[in-house]
Amino acid sequence: MSTAAAPPRPWYLTLVGVLGIIQGVVTTIAGIALVAERNDPDFIDHIDVSSDAITSTGIAAIIIGVITILVSFGLLRGSNAARLILGVVELFHLGGGIYVLIAHSGVQRWDGLWAIIWALLILWIIFGSERSEAFFDRSRV
Q: How many domains would you assign to the chain?
């Protein structure tokens, strides 16, 4: 039996988890608001989308928000499954950023560049740091 203490969660991993929880809560609230306002004629007229489209978007936002919250809590607990899910999502962000950087011009290229930078930063935080590796390895033992 080992008496060594488990490695602490790095602060930058905590930051990613907390920001993910905040993002998930905001996304869920936005989805609830869309579903609640789906039949408001002024709202429908303003955004020029059908009530069904608003409802679908709201439900999707709620689902994505809840998944984001769950993955963020899992990340804070040291779940390797949560880390893998976040890694896959960031690979999509990286690919999207590369596409925008190549396919678009002007200001949109900056959006692509920022997407690439953020995706690489998150990938480094969850996979590239020795402290993060030690934190996630402790749950495999």
A: 2
